[in-house]
Design a protein that fits this description.
By secondary structure, the protein is α+β, with helices and mostly antiparallel strands. The protein is 38% helix and 20% strand. The chain is built from 4 helices and 3 strands, in the order E-H-H-E-E-H-H. The protein has a 3-stranded mixed beta sheet with strand order 1-2-3. Strand 2 (25-29) and strand 3 form a beta hairpin. The protein is elongated and about 60 Å long.
Length: 74
């Protein structure tokens, strides 16, 4: 678990996102935890949520291991 101040978070959001891929990042304000940043995969593990059709549709085709075949008839 990594702890960063809100000032540190605001100054380097990219670093916090990199860390959050491996572990939750707790953001503090005046020394008290106010937010937690975590990867979507970790969030889904905690909540039991699965990818939705909206997530899949928003994913670029190159990132998916599927082939889209369109027929000539509509």
């Amino acid at each position: 678990m990594k702890v960063v101040t809100s000032r540190e978070f605001n100054q380097d959001v990219s670093a916090a996102k990199r860390i959050a891929r491996a572990e939750p990042v707790f953001v503090t304000d005046r020394g008290r935890p106010t937010h937690v940043l975590m990867s979507i995969d970790h969030f889904r593990q905690l909540t039991g949520e699965r990818e939705s059709i909206v997530d899949l549709l928003a994913t670029p085709a190159e990132a998916l291991d599927v082939e889209l075949v369109l027929s000539g008839r509509w």
